[in-house]
Structures are given as C-alpha cells and as structure tokens.
Design a protein that fits this description.
Helices cover about 0% and strands about 50% of the residues. The protein is mostly beta strands. It has a six-stranded mixed sheet, with no helix packed on it. The protein has a four-stranded antiparallel sheet with strand order 2-8-5-3, with no helix packed on it. Strand 9 (about 100-110) and strand 10 (about 110-120) form a beta hairpin. It starts with 6 loop residues before the first strand and ends with a strand. About 30% of the residues are buried.
Length: about 120
C-alpha cells in the first residue's frame, strides 16, 4: 500500500512515542526475493506488551527509512511520520507497540521513490 499526504515529522531517534524498538538485525531478515510484499510484520496482531518483528527487503536501493505514523496533538487532526531510523535495504526490527501502529518503509534511490506501509494490531 502506498502512503501519500503524510507530513514528515523529521524527529530523530530510535524510540517512538507509541512504541519501543530493538536494534535492527539486517543479516537475519527473513524476507527473500520470492516473498510477495517488500515489507511484512510477524505476527500481524499482538497483545499489549508483546513484540512483533518488521521485515523488509527492497533490492533496488541501498538503504531505507523506517518511520512510524503518529497523530499530531494539535488543534487539527493530522498524521505525521516520526523517523525510527535509516537501515540497510534488507533488515528486520523488533518493536513493542502499545496500541495499533502503522509503519512506513520508504526509499529514494536513482530517481525512484517508493513507500510501503504495514500495520500491527494490538489487542
């Protein structure tokens, strides 16, 4: 799913307001060229306090940006992207979201721009 119309929050750091994350392990990413989607989450639904693993493989680029979709607390409802980090084009990241959370993996390389989103349901 492509994501358009989101404002970039531009905040650095590995700790997002709505989730905890663990350092990426690019060498252990479980995606291969045969996988259907370039971004996946395992499992897709968790209970509060459990973790999920984001996996990505975008072979047309050298690095990707991983961002979390967050709601702006301002007077108007807006969705913004908060930078989680910049990672190699193939990797995985363990996260502990506290509520339903959407992540966006994007890349810009050699004139090509791509973005893919994935959501985790927290029960």
């Amino acid at each position: 799913m492509l994501v358009f119309g989101l404002e970039i929050a531009g905040l650095l750091g590995l700790f997002a307001r709505n989730a905890s994350v663990q350092s990426p392990r690019p060498e252990s990413a479980g995606l291969t060229r045969q996988d259907e989607r370039p971004v996946q989450v395992r499992p897709k639904a968790i209970r509060k306090g459990q973790s999920a693993t984001l996996l990505w493989f975008m072979p047309t680029t050298h690095e990707v940006r991983l961002e979390e979709v967050v709601e702006d607390d301002g007077p108007r409802f807006r969705q913004c992207l908060r930078l989680v980090g910049v990672f190699p084009s193939k990797g995985s990241l363990q996260v502990w979201p506290h509520s339903n959370t959407t992540y966006v993996v994007s890349c810009a390389d050699a004139g090509t721009i791509c973005a893919e989103s994935i959501s985790i349901t927290v029960r």
